[in-house]
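User: Could you go from structure to sequence for me? I need the amino acid at each position, not a summary. Structure tokens:
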């Protein structure tokens, strides 16, 4: 048997199918993520501030429902049932948005967000269940699935940009509908191999299963009108979600202070520091489909080598850097560590924040060198995205991995959920920052450039200063992580 044949035979049943399901299931989200602000401002005539709030709430719901999706799938519907049900909601949601009215947007988004928010965790759960606890192939499988997700993003962003150039929004959302439907078809064709293998739902009787299935379906459908109502009231919704986040943060601080084990308590404080740094990073990162995209359209010369660059195509800078740069950065860090370089968790967080800051600080420099009409050269936007993407490579893969190292066993669930909540909260702050961008008008680049320069400079310096502060705190944070008073390197916590 050939080497390739042996490798294919070694893949657990269902893992290969999940790679392709991951790819097509990402298409719809990529379309909405990259197009929502443009669609609401250009087609539905939202102000930039209103569109920014909508995008912030979009991200908050998407990430906020992930944790609940894992609970609903494992205890009520099964992961494969919830995944297909969630994709069905996304199909109807995308199709409804294609009608092009304000009312269809709200209900379509409610359907889509409920589906995407609940079923993302199901994919990860189905994949992890294909492997035994000590199976070393799991990491490789998740890397492949991450690659599949980025392939889906690349295709989704590319198609979205194509239709954006002609503002053919109905065709674009129908494309998203088809992508979501293909995910359902692939899941049905692989139904048997995607069955749940280790969930609490498998321990119940047939009657109890039917009862839970009905209850789970009612819960899933019942979430839709709640999300729709909250989308139509984004201001109060944003305040409510921030209030919930503040309560969770206060509860975590209380648990940390009261925790009796000193070593574990110190690690919990380290988690808090990283959570704060993560909030700063993702709050700026999530401006990409929001305020940064409006800046690109109105103030950047998007002609490159005679080709008009669609705003969604800019998002693929990130996709390419992640796919190509991930293995290269891992190899580089491995070589540096073998040579004695101390690259560990706190240092990676600090570098990520500084890179994010530099990415934003590059934009005011580009604005200062704008053309006579006020248009900024595309190279400055390109450089900003590259810096941000390298920062993502440093901070994203280690986020969830570190929780198993820092969280006491009894708090791992709440700390994992809190880490996911940080991303949702960051989406709200990204909406706040994006809401500060000026209104576009005829010949507005010269007028709005100073506003953009001030905003980007403040955000860039904020992230850079946060990164420098973390650099100064590295010895202290290492002591917290080690728990033994030592400031020795903790490179084993890093997964890059």
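Assistant: Here is the amino acid at each position, in order:
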């Amino acid at each position: 048997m050939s080497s390739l044949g042996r490798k294919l035979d070694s893949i657990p049943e269902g893992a290969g199918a999940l790679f392709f399901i991951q790819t097509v299931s990402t298409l719809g989200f990529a379309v909405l993520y990259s197009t929502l602000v443009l669609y609401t401002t250009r087609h539905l005539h939202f102000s930039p501030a209103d569109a920014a709030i909508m995008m912030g709430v979009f991200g908050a719901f998407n990430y906020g429902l992930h944790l609940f999706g894992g609970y609903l799938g494992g205890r009520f519907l099964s992961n494969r049932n919830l995944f297909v049900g969630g994709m069905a909601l996304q199909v109807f949601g995308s199709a409804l948005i294609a009608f092009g009215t304000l009312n269809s947007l709200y209900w379509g988004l409610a359907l889509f967000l409920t589906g995407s928010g609940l079923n993302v965790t199901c994919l990860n759960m189905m994949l992890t269940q294909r492997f035994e606890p000590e199976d070393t192939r799991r990491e490789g499988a998740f890397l492949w699935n991450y690659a599949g997700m980025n392939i889906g993003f690349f295709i989704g962003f590319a198609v979205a940009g194509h239709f954006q150039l002609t503002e053919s929004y109905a065709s674009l959302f129908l494309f998203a509908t088809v992508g979501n439907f293909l995910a359902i078809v692939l899941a049905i064709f692989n139904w048997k191999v995607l069955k749940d293998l280790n969930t609490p739902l498998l321990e119940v009787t047939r009657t109890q299963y039917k009862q839970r299935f009905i209850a789970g379906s009612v819960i899933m459908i019942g979430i839709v009108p709640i999300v729709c109502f909250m989308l139509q009231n984004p201001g109060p919704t944003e305040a409510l979600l921030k209030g919930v986040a503040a309560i969770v943060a206060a509860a975590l601080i209380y648990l940390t202070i009261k925790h009796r084990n000193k070593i574990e308590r110190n690690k919990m404080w380290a988690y808090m520091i990283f959570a704060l740094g993560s909030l700063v990073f993702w709050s700026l990162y999530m401006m990409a489909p929001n305020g940064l995209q409006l800046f690109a359209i109105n103030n950047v010369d998007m002609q490159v080598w005679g080709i008009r660059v669609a705003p969604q195509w800019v998002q693929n800078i990130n996709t390419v850097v992640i796919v190509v740069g991930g293995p290269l950065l891992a190899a580089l860090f491995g070589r540096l560590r073998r040579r004695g370089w101390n690259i560990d968790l706190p240092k990676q967080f600090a570098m990520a924040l500084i890179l994010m800051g530099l990415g934003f600080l590059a934009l005011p420099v580009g604005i200062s060198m704008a053309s006579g009409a006020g248009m900024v050269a595309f190279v400055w936007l390109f450089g900003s995205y590259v810096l941000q993407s390298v920062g993502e490579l440093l901070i994203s893969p280690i986020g969830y991995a570190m929780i198993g190292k820092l969280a006491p066993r009894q708090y791992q669930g709440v700390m994992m959920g809190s880490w996911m909540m940080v991303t949702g909260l960051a989406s709200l702050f990204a909406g706040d920052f994006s809401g500060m961008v000026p209104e576009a008008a005829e010949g507005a680049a010269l007028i709005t450039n100073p506003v953009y320069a001030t905003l980007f400079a403040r955000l860039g310096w904020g992230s850079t200063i946060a990164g420098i502060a973390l650099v100064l705190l590295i010895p202290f944070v290492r002591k917290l992580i080690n728990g033994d008073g030592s400031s020795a390197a903790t490179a084993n916590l890093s997964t890059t």
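One structural detail worth keeping in mind: The CA atoms of residues 89 and 157 lie 21 Å apart.
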